[in-house]
Write a structure and sequence with these properties.
The protein is an alpha+beta fold. Among the domains are: 185-356, no CATH class; 365-484, Histone H3 K4-specific methyltransferase SET7/9 N-terminal domain (Single Sheet), CATH 2.20.110; 523-595, Single Sheet (Histone H3 K4-specific methyltransferase SET7/9 N-terminal domain). Helix content is 21%, strand content 45%. It contains 20 helices and 78 strands. The strands form four sheets. It has a 45-stranded antiparallel sheet that branches. The protein has a 16-stranded antiparallel sheet that branches. The protein has a 15-stranded antiparallel sheet that branches. Helix 1 (29-41) packs parallel to helix 3 (62-75), helix 3 runs antiparallel to helix 4 and helix 6 packs antiparallel against helix 7. It is elongated and about 140 Å long.
Length: 1098
């Protein structure tokens, strides 16, 4: 079993997560593969195969697993599967260091499948790529031998043995090629060499048997010799005659060693009579005879014979080797020195070899370079090439007369792509230097002078985006240093002098807005500093002295009002701290001394009423008291027995949380947060102030929302999230705070929507997106967050569109299964850039938007089929801005929203079919804030629900005098709402539970007729939804399941005529959508497949 690149295991990601959805265990892929190797070596090929198949396609050890898998399939005689696995491994870009092994295995598999021409082509092309990988020469020779092309096999083995004389199997195979050509003496020498190299090798018995047959000049041997076509030299003929004469087998022949065996006798006779001939071009004469002859002439023959037969189990030989271990070790060293000279020169001729200056260099026994040394034998000079062990180029460059690097040096990855280009002078970097990522994009580029960085250096991401620019002087950062966001907008702008921050320091938001500004002097923050909200308002102002906060620091709300004020001395809080609501009311105040809180901290609600007093000693919480609106104490907690069991309350008196603290102020044991209604919101486990153990969040209905585990404050363990109806939403692993391995995502009905693979929090490997029913939609290959390849599938699971993104750029074009264009854009440096357009099957535009270096920017337009508007809006720096409008399938406005910097701000208006406002809700910073007004069918306000930070706090409606009744409170966002029109008719009736509508929700027109009826489960629409016209006619009927439209629906005009009907599957149109004219006559039928329009019939 081949075992290489052990060091690679240290850097390869070991995590993979098994396929089972219910059981997704964390495993170590390296351990799994090594266990498979053990099983293979025990001959348990099928068990080994099962081990290897556990490794994910996205695992960094996947190619290794494929190699071992193909090897085990091959050993198990499953040649077709072995071939398929090899082809898959060879098609991948990862782990190319295993390619020589893969080519070797692939060629052997093809050979056993009878595809000998293809196998030969594989070996030939692989040798071109990896000219020093000796198994390729060996296996090509075996293939030639199977076709009885012994001379060709001999030639390839000779080449291989000059490259790698330590490939003992090539010595054996060379002997076989020789004997099959009648070269008896040559084969004899090769078989002896095999035993010299590996006395206990797998061909030991075959070698000894063949040596015996030759020594006895058996008929089979004579038959081989009789068919010989190549004339032998006189020296070889003499040696052959000695073997055939069997003179050494005569009892009168005197062995020079104690061991008396026919083979050793013949070897002695052969070694005694053989002579090295400088002019003899016979490979065996030049390769073997000089070594073997010196053993005989230097009186090492007995050690040699006992060495080569040391594993045959003869007691006399074993005893000899034990007693002469030093001599045997010395013999081995002599063999190594001799073979190393061959390997370093690759010269067959002995005299030329010993006189030649070594050309090839080796590190830890592996090929490392080729070049010349000066006369001292240690100083390199001239042009050199350095190699990977397989012989493919790693580095090219030159040395000057002093053995120092000079001129341009080129560095290459294993697959031959550029890794770096450097320039040298007198052994120091001097001139331009460029480093590349494996995909060919530049990693960094800069200029050196006298070995030190000088001038501007640029650093990029794998995708080719600008990451850092920095200026150097004399090897030190000097001047401007800038870091960039993925859209290449500036994130940090820093000024340096001689490696120390010195000058202006600014940070920015991704959209380009200023975030922070301060000044550094000699590496210390000094003077005034300010931070800003993303929308431009001042957020913080303060002062630094020697990088310590000093003086008064202020924070502000977005509306410009003071949020907090505090004072520092030498970087430590000192004196009063005050914090305010955005309405100017005090939230809290307390005192600090030398950075620690002591005394009482008072907390006030935004109505100015005190609701909590927490007492600290030396920055450690000791007690807490909570009060209701009347000032009555509703709860208290005190330190007892060196622990504080705290129960905290909200300003409205509802219990907020429970926690336990030790006498050092560190949280321990369980922490529980509550909803205002008393149900559990979240449970966490603490140890010594850090999250340790399980953490569970819950929905209002008591079902789990998220469950995960923490170790020392970091997410570590299996993560699961759920929909509120208890359906699994996502699952996967965290390790030391980072997502790792396979993560699975589900829709509300339990269908897998996507499977992503992560490596250290980056998507890495393959991402799979699915239609319902586990039908493949998209497959994407991703390298550390960068898209490299995409494949689309049709509804039958057949791939029909394949896109590559070399260097993380290219045309992004998705298709319909019939080949028509579905979507089109451009990817530049892994960012969408320019127009992104979706099309209907007839080529008309479905939607168009624009990207600027990965961020949505400018207009967004979506259209219903036929050209009527569906959505209108605008993005700025990746976020929604201004007015967004949404229309129904008939082009009628149904909703408008106002956005500032990606957040809802201002009015969100719902419209009725006749264009009148129906529902107007005020938003602030993406939360409902202030009145939500609901209008009657005549456009008159009917009732108002008031929100505070997204929770309904009260409602009111108009009485018969057209005056609002006193506000009806909704404590904690909960309570029943029953509002009336000014004429006394019921307007609406439903219930809130902490801001979520729950149960039946009925709305009416002022004439008493129903306007709509729906049912909610803690905010999620469930069941049939009806909407009516003021005269009582049905307007529309939809079915909901888990807050998504699901099942058939119908819409009618005010004449009662059906104008639209179709079917939804979990919020996606699926199946025929029929559109009718105002008289109820069928106009057209649109056929959808899980949200995608496939065809139109008119």
């Amino acid at each position: 079993m081949t075992k290489i690149l052990v060091a690679f295991l240290l850097i390869a990601s070991p995590y993979y997560y098994a396929v089972a959805q219910e059981n997704n265990p964390l495993i170590n892929s390296a351990e799994v593969i090594n266990e498979g190797v053990k099983l293979h070596d025990q001959g348990k090929y099928k068990e080994a195969i099962q081990q290897y198949q556990k490794v994910s396609t996205s695992d960094t050890n996947y190619v290794w697993a494929l190699y071992e898998l193909s090897y085990s399939f091959y050993a198990d005689s499953q040649f077709i599967k072995a071939k398929q696995i090899c082809e898959e491994a060879l098609s991948l870009n990862a782990d190319r260091e295993r390619e020589p092994e893969l080519y070797t295995n692939y060629g052997n598999i093809l050979d056993d499948l009878g595809e000998k021409d293809r196998a030969m082509h594989v070996f030939d092309s692989a040798i071109q790529k990896y000219p020093a990988y000796s198994p390729l020469y060996l296996n090509k020779a075996v293939l030639l031998m199977s076709e009885q092309k012994y001379k060709e096999a001999e030639d390839i083995l000779k080449t291989g043995l000059l490259i790698d004389p330590y490939s003992y199997s090539m010595h054996f195979r060379l002997g076989q090629t020789a004997i099959n050509q009648g070269k008896i003496v040559q084969s004899y020498l090769s078989f002896i060499a095999y035993l010299m190299m590996t006395p206990g090798g797998r061909y030991k018995s075959s070698c000894i048997s063949l040596l015996k047959s030759i020594s006895h000049a058996e008929n089979d041997i004579l038959d081989f010799a009789g068919k010989r076509t190549e004339e032998q030299s006189e020296n070889i003929q003499l040696l052959e005659q000695i073997l055939y004469s069997k003179i050494a087998l005569d009892k009168n022949y005197k062995p020079t060693i104690k061991l008396d065996d026919p083979i050793s006798r013949q070897i002695q006779a052969l070694f005694e009579k053989m002579e090295y001939e400088a002019g003899n071009n016979d490979f065996w004469v030049q390769y073997y005879i000089p070594l073997f002859k010196q053993f005989f002439t230097k009186d090492k023959f007995e050690v040699f014979i006992n060495h080569i037969f040391g594993q045959v189990g003869v007691e006399m030989i074993n005893d000899y080797n034990k007693k002469h271990k030093k001599e045997e070790d010395a013999l081995i060293n002599e063999i190594v020195d001799y073979l190393n000279q061959i390997r370093k020169t690759r010269i067959a001729n002995y005299e030329q070899r010993v006189k030649a200056t070594p050309v090839y260099t080796f590190t830890d026994g592996k090929l490392s370079g080729k070049g010349k040394y000066k006369a001292d034998g240690n100083t390199p000079e001239g042009t050199w090439e350095f190699y990977y062990p397989a012989g493919n180029i790693k580095t090219k460059g030159s040395f000057d007369e002093n053995g120092k690097r000079t001129g341009t040096w080129n560095f290459y990855n294993f697959n031959g792509t550029a890794d770096a280009v450097e320039n040298y002078k007198d052994g120091e970097l001097d001139g331009k230097g460029i480093n590349y990522f494996p995909n060919g994009n530049i990693d960094n580029i800069g200029v050196y002078k006298n070995g030190k960085a000088a001038g501007e250096f640029k650093y990029f991401t794998y995708a080719g985006r600008k990451r850092i620019t920095v200026n150097f002087e004399d090897g030190k950062v000097d001047g401007l240093r800038m870091e960039y966001f993925p859209n290449e907008n500036v994130h940090y702008a820093e000024t340096y002098k001689a490696d120390s921050l010195d000058g202006t320091y600014k940070t920015y938001y991704q959209g380009g807005q200023l975030e922070t500004e301060l000044t550094y002097i000699n590496g210390q923050a000094e003077g005034k500093t300010k931070t800003y909200y993303e929308t431009g308002e001042l957020a913080t102002e303060g002062l630094y002295e020697h990088s310590r906060r000093s003086g008064t620091w202020k924070r502000y709300h977005k509306n410009g009002k003071l949020k907090s004020i505090e004072s520092y001395i030498n970087g430590l809080l000192e004196g009063a701290y005050e914090e305010y609501y955005d309405n100017g009311k005090l939230f809290t105040k307390y005192q600090n001394k030398k950075g620690k809180t002591a005394g009482n901290i008072e907390y006030y609600d935004d109505d100015g009423k005190l609701f909590a007093v927490l007492t600290y000693e030396n920055d450690i919480l000791k007690s807490a008291k909570y009060f209701d609106k009347a000032g009555k104490e509703i709860g208290s907690s005190d330190t007892k027995n060196k622990r504080l069991e705290l129960t905290a309350y909200r300003p409205d008196g509802s219990k907020r949380m429970q926690a336990v603290y030790n006498n050092k102020g560190a949280q321990i044991e369980d922490e529980i947060f509550f909803y205002a209604n008393g149900s559990v919101n979240e449970k966490n486990s603490y140890a010594d102030g850090q999250l340790n153990g399980p953490s569970v969040n819950y929905y209002l209905n008591g079902k789990k929302y998220v469950e995960l585990n923490y170790i020392n404050g970091e997410k570590d363990g299996y993560y699961k999230s759920y929909y509120q109806h208890d359906q699994l939403k996502s699952e996967g692993w965290y390790k030391e705070g980072k997502a790792q391995g396979k993560w699975i995502y589900y829709d509300e009905l339990g269908n897998i929507t996507s499977v992503l693979n992560y490596l250290n929090d980056d998507t890495h490997g393959y991402r799979y997106d699915y239609y319902p029913g586990n039908k493949p939609d998209l497959e994407q290959r991703i390298y550390k967050g960068t898209l490299e390849e995409l494949t689309q599938y049709d509804s039958t699971g057949k791939a029909f569109n394949h896109i590559f993104f070399p260097k993380a750029s290219g045309n992004y074009i998705l298709l319909y299964p019939d080949g028509k264009k579905y979507a089109e854009s451009k990817i530049v440096n892994d960012n969408f850039d320019g127009a992104f357009t979706y099309f209907y099957p007839d080529g008309s535009i479905k939607s168009v938007q624009f990207y600027k270096k990965g961020m949505e920017d400018s207009i967004y337009r979506a259209y219903n089929y036929g050209g009527k508007p569906a959505t209108e809006g605008q993005f700025k720096a990746g976020k929604k801005t201004g007015t967004w409008k949404y229309y129904n399938t008939r082009g009628m406005l149904v909703l408008s929203e106002q956005y500032i910097n990606g957040e809802l701000n201002g009015e969100k208006i719902s419209y009725e079919y006749d264009g009148r406002k129906y529902h107007v809700t005020m938003y602030k910073d993406d939360k409902k804030e202030g009145p939500a007004t609901i209008y009657d069918e005549n456009g008159k306000a009917a009732y108002i629900i008031t929100y505070k930070e997204n929770l309904p706090v009260s409602y009111a409606y108009y009485n018969k005098n057209e005056q609002l009744v006193p506000e009806i409170l909704l404590p904690g966002g909960s309570g029943k709402v029953k509002a009336f029109f000014s004429n006394g008719n019921l307007a609406t009736e439903f219930e809130f539970i902490e801001g979520k509508t729950n149960g039946a929700d009925k709305k009416y027109y002022s004439n008493g007729k129903p306007a709509s009826d729906a049912s909610y489960d803690y905010g999620a629409t469930e069941g049939v939804y009806h909407e009516y016209y003021p005269d009582g006619k049905l307007k529309e009927e939809y079915n909901y399941l888990h807050d998504n439209v699901n099942g058939p629906y119908k819409e009618y005009n005010n004449k009662g005529k059906l104008v639209e009907e179709g079917n939804y599957y979990n919020g996606m149109l699926h199946g025929p959508l029929k559109l009718y004219d105002e008289n109820g006559l069928l106009n057209q039928t649109l056929n959808y497949y899980y949200g995608k329009l496939l065809s139109v019939k008119k």
